[in-house]
Design goal:
about 90 residues; mainly beta; Alpha-Beta Plaits; about 10% helix; about 45% strand; globular
Length: about 90
């Protein structure tokens, strides 16, 4: 599954490079989105959130609840990151 990561402009972080592993964390207590999935780089800096478009964040949120996944940066383009998620 390939997903967009939004909100990069709101955080200060070392930009992940292509093929770098990122960490996905559910944020059920997020006041703006109960299905929020935050994305962190290898330095444990928040870089953004999985996009809410087409309820992609909800699908990833549920996937993280059920099983372990790995996530890898595909590319970073103009304030948006594309991440590939696969079952671990």
């Amino acid at each position: 599954m390939t997903v967009g990561v939004m909100g990069l402009r709101y955080y200060t972080f070392k930009e992940p490079q292509s093929n770098e592993t990122v960490i996905l964390k559910r944020e059920p207590s997020n006041p703006y989105d109960s299905k929020a999935v935050a994305v962190y780089n290898q330095q444990s800096e928040k870089v953004g959130y999985v996009s809410k478009s087409y309820d992609v964040n909800g699908k990833v949120f549920n996937l993280l609840r059920k099983q372990k996944v790995s996530a890898t940066v595909v590319t970073v383009l103009g304030g948006m990151m594309i991440v590939y998620i696969e079952l671990a």
